[in-house]
Inverse folding.
């Protein structure tokens, strides 16, 4: 049989081992790092979202599609992954606008597009055009878009570049704001 002294020694060793381990562990090893800051909360997300804005006469005004839409209630906005917006032209053609990412505030008055923003003009007759920029704000209710960033436009072999642009979809009109340069080829 074990004496009381031996039992106390065994109990002390069994208790001392976890306490010693617990005291030697550094806080970095036992707790996850919070250096990245708090994680923003998403209250809902939608996969393969399609949002249609209708005109007053019942025709389609715009169709926004995105593979992933996440809503951030603290920011009061939705984040869009690779958004694509299709808008009809007055002549039966359509505009196709896409970007790497987008932001849609809860007010839905504008869509902020960023990263490789491309606007494809697809008329029913004549050559199409491509306009590219890094950032653009689309105002769906007003059929208007704006950017202060450099823009590049291609139509066939003709190119135009500028810094800043106002685009009026309903009038099919573009205003280039500054540093406009063009290269046009006579055919």
């Amino acid at each position: 049989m074990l004496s009381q002294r031996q039992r106390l020694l065994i109990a002390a060793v069994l208790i001392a081992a976890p306490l010693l381990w617990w005291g030697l562990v550094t806080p970095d090893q036992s707790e996850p790092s919070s250096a990245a800051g708090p994680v923003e909360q998403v209250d809902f997300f939608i996969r393969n979202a399609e949002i249609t804005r209708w005109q007053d006469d019942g025709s389609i005004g715009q169709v926004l599609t995105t593979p992933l839409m996440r809503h951030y209630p603290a920011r009061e906005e939705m984040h869009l992954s690779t958004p694509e917006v299709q808008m009809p032209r007055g002549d039966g053609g359509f505009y196709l606008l896409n970007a790497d990412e987008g932001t849609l505030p809860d007010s839905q008055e504008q869509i902020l597009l960023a990263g490789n923003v491309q606007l494809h003009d697809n008329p029913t007759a004549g050559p199409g055009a491509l306009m590219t920029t890094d950032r653009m704000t689309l105002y769906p209710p007003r059929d208007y878009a704006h950017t202060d960033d450099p823009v590049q436009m291609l139509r066939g072999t003709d190119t135009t570049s500028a810094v800043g642009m106002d685009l009026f979809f309903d009038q099919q009109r573009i205003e280039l704001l500054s540093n406009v340069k063009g290269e046009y080829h006579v055919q």
Observations:
- The chain has two helices and eleven strands.
- The first strand starts at residue 44 and ends at 54.
